Amino acid sequence: MQDLHVLDSPDQAAAALEPTRARLLAALSTPGSSSTLADLLGMPRQRVNYHLRALESAGLVALTEERQRRGFTERLFQATASAYVVSPAALGRAGADPQRIDRLSTRYLIALAARMIQELGQLTARADAAGKYLPTLAIDTEIRFGSAADRAAFTRELGEAVTRLAARYHDQDAPAGRWHRLIVAAHPRPERPSPTNPDATTDPDTTLE
Predict the structure, then answer these.
(1) In Å, how far are 51, 92, 105, 148, 159 from 111, measured between CA atoms?
(2) Helical packing angle, 10-17 and 19-27, nearest 10°
(3) 51 and 26 in one domain?
């Protein structure tokens, strides 16, 4: 089982997003049969079998074991991944494309994230098939700005630092060089429920104008 699988085909995305099949995928983090799934989800076994066949055909579940039970063969399935994410590639030309989005819009950042999912999904699949390691870099942190002025100063200094480093390490003509994408992004963190009061939040004011 993979820890994450990027769905880049329309058939896989449609299968995973259908509500009943999404519930089955979540339940199949460990192997299960149509009988155990029917009991767990309160569904007729025939209906579970129908959806399992569709998920198996889409490559989202795999047969892990067959065993004899009271005169019939019980087939156990497991999801092919612990989690799934849909790539814009599954939507074809309707998928997000940063080149069609206003660069000053918040949706531009969403489009960049979508493109990253699509490209990394394709590269990861190729690396896995070749048995090779795909070098990547990820930095994930949180920062709370005291004011809009602080945020602007941080943005300016970060931009200067990235420009300086890119100029130092960029080599247009290196024979063995390989192009990489570098995306630097920041957005307001969604409010989180308070541990003691689910109706309150830990960040009463997360918007900086």
Answers:
(1) 32, 14, 10, 25, 20
(2) 80
(3) yes
Alpha helix (H) residue ranges in 19-105: 19-27, 34-41, 45-57
Task: Say if residues 11 and 87 touch (Cβ distance below 8 Å).
Answer: no
Q: Are residues 190 and 162 in the same domain?
A: yes
The per-residue pLDDT for 90 is 94
The Cα 106–Cα 104 span in angstroms is 7
Mean pLDDT in order along the chain per 10 residues (209 residues): 92 94 94 93 93 94 88 89 94 92 93 95 93 92 95 96 96 93 93 68 50
For tokens 């089955």, the residue is 24
Handedness of CA 66, 67, 73, 79 (dihedral sign): negative
* pLDDT of amino acid 119: 95
First to last CA, the chain: 45
Q: Dig out the tokens for 118 from the structure.
A: 């699509």
Residue 59 structure tokens:
């490559």
Give me the pLDDT at residue 207, please: 47
Residues near 84 by beta carbon (within 8 Å), at least 6 away in sequence: 4, 5, 6, 7, 16, 25, 60
Q: Give dist(CA 86, CA 9) in Å, integer.
A: 9
- The pLDDT of residue 73 is 84
Q: What is the pLDDT of residue 199?
A: 62
Number of domains in the chain: 3
Q: Are residues 111 and 151 in the same domain?
A: no
